[in-house]
Amino acid sequence: MNYAFPIDALLHSLKYRTNLALAPVLADLLLAQIDKTVLPDFIIPMPLHPARLRERGFNQAMEIGRQISKKSGVPLLPALCRRVRDTASQTRLPWKEREKNIQDAFDCEGKLNGKRIAIVDDVMTTGATLNELARVLRKCEAVHISAWVVARTLPGTP
């Protein structure tokens, strides 16, 4: 889905107004777009840095991922990966600087030998954050990594 009204308003309300009741709604919208004949072995929510988590009080990707896991039966691995570098908010950076900003921001512990992984996040803009986490997951020997995002900001969107 495009990151436009009404999805943008719903995501904003979840993320910045702590409207956690929207997580199941957003999970349903995301699940409606997923081919359930090829589900992954595990779901990994996009990690927040501990400082951002303390500031916000919750991880919106975790809340959406928890609902998707519950509704799909795919196990959620919330502690496998962590954000080890407190990066500048990607939303405040020009598109071209986002990849450099997110480099080496994640660490994942454990082996995913041959497993299929779905990374859950709320919004994808350039894909830099998802690509960086996927790079780290490949080092853990995951063989197939999908990005499950509620909304996508298209190039040229303000």
UniProtKB/TrEMBL annotation:
InterPro entries: ComF/GntX_DNA_util-trans, PRTase-like, PRTase_dom. It comes from Nitrosospira multiformis. Belongs to the ComF/GntX family. SUPFAM superfamilies: PRTase-like. Pfam families: Pribosyltran. Residues 107-151 form the Phosphoribosyltransferase domain. This is ComF family protein. It comes from the Bacteria.
